[in-house]
Design brief:
eight-stranded mixed sheet; 12 helices; ProC C-terminal domain-like fold; Rossmann fold; alpha/beta; elongated; about 15% strand
Length: about 280
């Protein structure tokens, strides 16, 4: 079967599901092989406007029975009830189940889908909305290569994907890339505020900041050099950049980020253990 002919069903049609569907359509996936169920009329309308041939379903169980790939794209607190319902429906033995719900552990997924041999846990991030996402994926070591290929195909429709070998690293992915965009937005927010204090209007401050951030990210992605080397190349001794970096280092920026990422990772672990009822 060609990848673009896979039957892919989404339980939940919110922003992330829409981002993946948009990416799949752009990659040439057949719209009539995409199925979505969502209780929100607004989400269904957005999906219908995306492509008229997408199959909108009213029943999660009916959708699950039609798909080669089942994407669980509902909120973590809703997933237990949805999963228990789906687990009792008749589904293909070869079906791949992908969960993009933050904090939902493989132990929970295996418990709900005890008859499923193909389960993948994914942590995407919001740049997926513009096709620039970074997703971390985890599955049991015995997941077959075909299912891994299917998971890559689905998630790479919105950017890039990275498989991790230990489920604990999914919580680290959450801390680094899942929550990561917010860290950069905060830095941009602060830079824009200061730029306006310096005399720029809001539009000018936004343009200077966002284009600088985008350019730095693109340069770092395109270069084989480390971030440290790239930083050094724009830092002349005694220059303006050196003066700014000195203040950041004196303010403990590295330790601040270390504490921030560790706090995010810790919270991800807590969500998985407590809010979802894991032991």
């Amino acid at each position: 079967m060609k990848m673009n002919e896979l039957s892919i069903g989404f339980v939940g049609g919110g922003n992330m599901a829409q981002a993946i569907i948009r990416g799949l359509l752009a990659a040439g996936h057949r719209p009539d092989r995409l199925y979505v169920s969502d209780p929100s009329a607004e989400s269904r309308q957005a999906l219908a406007e995306m492509h008229g041939n997408i199959r909108l379903q009213n029943d999660n169980a009916e959708l699950a029975g039609l798909c080669d790939v089942l994407v669980l794209a509902v909120k973590p607190q809703v997933l237990p009830d949805v999963a228990r319902q789906l687990a009792t429906t008749e589904r293909a033995a070869s079906q791949l189940v992908i969960s993009i719900a933050a904090g939902v552990t493989m132990a929970s997924l295996r418990g709900w889908f005890s008859d499923s041999k193909r389960i993948v846990r994914v942590m995407p991030n919001t740049p997926a909305l513009i096709g620039a996402g970074m997703a971390g994926l985890y599955a049991d070591h015995d997941l077959d290569s075909i299912a891994r290929g299917w998971a890559d195909y689905v998630m790479e429709a919105t950017g890039e994907s990275l498989w991790v070998s230990d489920e604990a690293l999914i919580d680290a992915v959450t801390a680094v890339s899942g929550s990561g965009p917010a860290y950069f937005f905060l830095v941009m927010e602060a830079m824009q505020e200061v730029a306006m204090e310096m005399g720029f209007d809001e539009q000018q401050a936004r343009l200077l900041t966002t284009r600088t951030a985008a350019g730095a990210g693109l340069l770092a992605s395109a270069s084989d050099e480390s971030a440290a080397v790239l930083r050094e190349r724009v830092t002349s001794p005694g220059g303006t950049t050196a003066a700014a970096l000195e203040q950041l280092e004196q303010g403990g920026i590295r330790d601040i980020f270390r504490k921030a990422l560790n706090a995010a990772q810790k919270r991800a672990v807590e969500l998985g253990k407590h809010e979802l009822g894991d032991s």
